[in-house]
Amino acid sequence: xxxxxxxxxxxxxxxLLREICSRDAAVRVLPTGTLTKGHExxxxxxxxxMKKAGVVAVTDTTSGVQNNEIMRRALEYAAMFDLVVLDHxxxxxxxxxxxxxxxxWSLRLGLRGLPRAAEEVVVSSDCLLAxxxxxxxxxxxxxxxxxxxxxxxxxxxxxxxxxxVSALHLLLTDAAxxxxxxxxxxxxxxxxEADRLxxxxxxxDGTIDAICSDHSPCTATEKDCEFDLAPFGAxxxxxxxxAAHTALVAGGHADLPLLIxxxxxxxxxxxxxxxxxxxxxxxxDLVLLDPKAAWTPAAADLLSKxxxxxxxxxxxxxxxxxxxxxxxxxxxx
Amino acid sequence: xxxxxxxxPCLRTFPMVLTSLGPPExxxxxxxxxxxxxxxxxIEELSRPEIELLFRQADQFLPALxxxxxxxxxxxxxxxxxxxxxxxxxxxxxxxxxxxxxxEVVSINTTASSLVKGETLRDTAMNIRAMGVDAIVMRHSxxxxxxxxxxxxDISVINAGDGAHEHPTQALLDAFTLRQRFGKVEGLKVTIxxxxxxxxxxxxxxxxxxxxxxxxxxxxxxTLVPASLKEAFPQVRIVHxxxxxxxxxxxxxxxxxxxxxxxxxxxxxxxxxxxxxxLNAERAAWLKPEAIVMHPGPINRGVEVESEVADGPRxxxxxxxxxxxxxxxxxxxxxxGAISR
Lengths: 333, 341
Ligand SMILES: NC(=O)OP(=O)(O)O
What we know:
The complex is a heterodimer of chains A (333) and B (341).
Chain A: H1 11-24, H2 47-53, E1 57-59, H3 68-80, E2 84-87, E3 100-101, H4 104-109, E4 113-114, H5 116-133, E5 137-139, H6 145-156, E6 161-166, H7 167-171, H8 193-204, E7 210-212, H9 220-223, H10 240-250, H11 256-263, H12 265-271, E8 286-295, E9 316-325, E10 328-332
Parallel strand pairs in A: 1-2, 2-5, 3-4, 5-6, 6-7
Antiparallel strand pairs in A: 8-9, 9-10
Helix pairs in contact in A: 3-5, 5-6, 6-8
Chain B: E1 13-17, E2 34-37, H1 48-61, E3 78-83, H2 89-100, E4 104-109, H3 121-130, E5 135-140, H4 145-152, E6 156-162, H5 168-182, E7 189-193, H6 200-211, E8 215-219, H7 229-232, E9 237-239, H8 242-246, E10 251-254, H9 270-277, H10 281-284, E11 292-294, H11 307-310, H12 317-337
Parallel strand pairs in B: 3-4, 3-5, 5-6, 7-8, 7-10, 8-9, 10-11
Antiparallel strand pairs in B: 1-2
Helix pairs in contact in B: 1-12, 2-12, 5-6, 5-12
The structure holds phosphoric acid mono(formamide)ester (CP).
């Protein structure tokens, strides 16, 4: 995601990112660029030249685009380069000071809420703009059951809309925040059981195309504080398969092939990449899965330097045993 | 080392037996006489027997409120008042309570503390603890901060208000006042009127009164008393009509409009609030003759309540404040006593 400091809103930063990744990264890292300069939502970033420099998509990440006119022009302009626009759907005027899902738990805990409607109004406006511009848009980490309904209707109209849900949102709800655990403070927030089940149903029926990790690392120090002072984000990449497998397959909602499709083919299609498939001649980017493994992640099991994985200490089933990139093993347990 | 904070508060618990300063009362027989919590972070964590034990302890301390009276139950102990938000009543009451029990009290002023220099709450608290303190009484703008501190420290942490979450000692002194007035809380009808959405006093009172068997009605404008409160607290009744809210309650608790926690979109103006929900003599006449008027303070006269009511015969506002000292003495005594030394 391009909300780095400095923001990935220009060719120089993208080139630097690609250099660092080609030197240091064990896996393929595909950079995205911002949609607007400094992801401030005011003026378009140089999308055409960033595309040439190698971005696979553009997004203003958690800032979202708050102005429908800018979103409309961005979609029209990005479509010219066949660049998919990713949107973090949130109307920031409705979420000021919000700390968690607005509902019974936020009321009990005395925390300001992020209402479902703040996401749904933007999902709606994005679908309307996709219809107007015929451009491709991908809706990031949906958290509300209502959002899934809106996307289902948009897809029925054959709009070029795709959507994703994070593995954490398939597994947990806002009730997990009852003790103010800052590692569970995410944006979008964990919502209610009805949302979790609606998101799973949407994933199964194809309304939602992909499962994402929504990996947002924070340091242990950043998260060791009062709830409202803690940053949003959970470091969930290493447990994404296990979380999604626990929720979907162990939870009895889907079979393993569907889960794998939503973790591989789904995201590749949303980004227009020729990846996420297993056949002769395709890239040998593989993971070795152990669907029967029952484990409870401990901090020591995880390689991430950040301590904010909320699944530490929770029983999960399914584990990644090895990862291969271009035929070379880069990870194994 | 990584601290995992979502495992629930790790309360260190030790037994603490009621300190009796007079002859035993008959109703003591049936209920629990042991206090095991080192912290008071919210009413949510308390059981009805614990609340009743605390009230019996506060009863024992009432005579010590007289001028010149004091006890030495906390002699040699030190209480730190860490108030990171303004307070008149709570801070003073805790200070007097600790002194009446013979403890030393140190108050840390927000603006003079190193929190403004970016020191974390954990570091501030660990440093205070390192100086040999027995209890920290904290008021903080962050919901959940008292539980956080209680899980970090092995000394007593008393919540004096954490954001819009809880203000447990206020609810305890309110219920204690109702018990004093009506003999018991069970079966009473209590209306909480005003800014419920942002009120920690309302949250603690809803929990405390429900635990003690009272029926709670929440009243006020729909933006400050949203219907969704019923999902969070299924035991309450929600009413937006003032007459309906007042007509058969035994007590009405007025709450201040908390400008500091609001954006401008919750109601048109203070004037409009007063015209719809302000309690004046004319509206107070809708109450039953024996019904009382309560307010945690600070009062905004002319906004949520007119002086004729705040200072009138139904008002128990200053009794609440006085009881607040006895209740806080009980809280300090029981919580610090729960840590075996
Ligand atoms: N009732 C109450 O908490 O008052 P203070 O804010 O003055 O402490």
